[in-house]
UniProtKB/TrEMBL annotation, chain B:
Keyword presence, Secreted: no
Domain ABC transmembrane type-1: 63-254
Transmembrane segments annotated in the record for this chain: 12-34, 67-86, 98-120, 126-149, 187-209, 229-254
Gene Ontology cellular component annotations, sorted alphabetically: plasma membrane
Protein's membrane topology: Multi-pass membrane protein
Subcellular location: Cell membrane
GO biological process terms, semicolon-separated: transmembrane transport
Main location: membrane
Similarity field: Belongs to the binding-protein-dependent transport system permease family.
Name recorded for this polypeptide: Sugar ABC transporter permease
Amino acid sequence: MALAAGRGPGEPRRVAYLYILPALLVFGLFVLVPLARTAQFSLYEWNGLGAASWAGLENYRAVFTEPQLRGAFVHALVLVVFYAVIPVTLGLLLAAAMSRAVLRGMGFFRVVLFLPQVIPMVVVAIAWRQIYEPNGPLNDVLRFVGLDALARPWLGDYTWALPSVGIVGTWVGTGLCLVLFLAGMSRVPRELYEAARLDGAGPFREFRAITLPSLRGELAVALTLTVIAALKTFDLVYVMTSGGPGTETTVPSYQVYNNAFLLGRVGTATALAVVLTLLLFVATVAINRVGERGQR
Amino acid sequence: MMISRGERLANYAVLAVFAVLAVYPVLLILQTALSNDQIGGGGSFHFENFADAWDQGQFGSYLRTSIIVAVLVVGLSTLFSVLAGYAFGTMRFRGSEVLFYVILLGIMVPAEALVIALYFDLRELGLTNTLVAIVMPQVAQSTAFGTFWMRAYFRGSSREVVEAARLDGAGHWTTLWRILVPMGRPALTTMVVLVFMWTWNEFLIPLIMATDESLRTAPLGLAFFQGQYTSGTALLAAGATLVALPVVVLYLFLQRHFIRGMVEGAVK
């Protein structure tokens, strides 16, 4: 405790325990206990009603071997590309292209670009379902420009359903990345770019030497938010596709729900939840490690 | 640095394209909500769709549940977070580091890892399908985030002000509520706004905990409503508009708090 005593702020006070009591109580009862119970449930086979039987690590084996469960994680990784990789790349390129200008009216654009982040996902899902309808706006546009062959019922198509869901994630994330990176760029001193240009640096060198390093913190934030959103996708799939067609758009969260409440496989569902939680931890820590290392 | 007129225009063009893409789905829903479902019906704006969604679609009832849930979650988690953040930020006590890191880890735990076990345990106690089951898990998660958030504020608060209050004879309780909380309005507002948004948009927890229609929150009611009707109908779009409206209006007024909170609270 020497560390705590040395670094902790303020003076020693017993009354602190009273101040933290309500928070700890509610946190313990509704986060720690359920988390421990989830881990415990994951070692049993149980249909939610009758008696449970010990299963050891059988549920975890199922998570990694059953094609449908493993498939859910593969789909989640595909979604990471759409939710995180594309928005971050797009945001970086655009921010770099706009780096030389001091633009007025950014306040307005920021409000609009960030808007997709605050709308309830269920509402987003309903809007995009309408866009993807067989006779919806997307197919209308394709037919209008003569690409009739491309028009299809997007969410019912075995190949295109998952990318269609992914594009919604791209829509949600791109504005966030753009807003973040433009704000980050505005803090980079203009003189740096002028100096680089005098030294004869091309746009590519400029990007690698100035833009990328100065956006390290913003990159970590953008990746954390978007990768977590991708791995935790639930509402969107529940409302747009229910995992279909077939199991083409199932994701881990959806399989957790599906196994626990529709298939009566509580053990499998909780094992999935544990694996998902670990995946989220690893992703968060890894992203922030990389972000911190860059700052040193 | 001077840039050419052309480059400036190109920049605005790029921003405009992305702005249009960002609002298009929103405008599509609004347009559908105001459209006429009956083919051949006249008129331009059909505001009666909102009244129909409110009554027939039961969105009035869903929104009421959502408001009750949001008030309870925001109120309780704000109170708990302020108290805990104050202790973690300004006082020294044994175990504070360990306890704080446990809470910090709790921020990263997704609802998926809590809600299944919680459902079956609460069912044993006869507590599923109650406000408690919908509200308390969210209070716990938001308190974890709020404690982290308020601790940062209290740590950064001016020591001199606290010392001065102490010299005036103010105890720790008075110092908190009379001085530090009023001074911390911006930090508090950001936290309240974020927790409100998370609670309003939450889907998984009410989906699992509320089996009764009377306990459905707005997003949940909307999801079930769309399961019954084909998409693209005016009534569904009107319902979707009503569900999104409170968050969007709040966002338009307090957008700085939304953006700052989501960026700085990215650990969640």
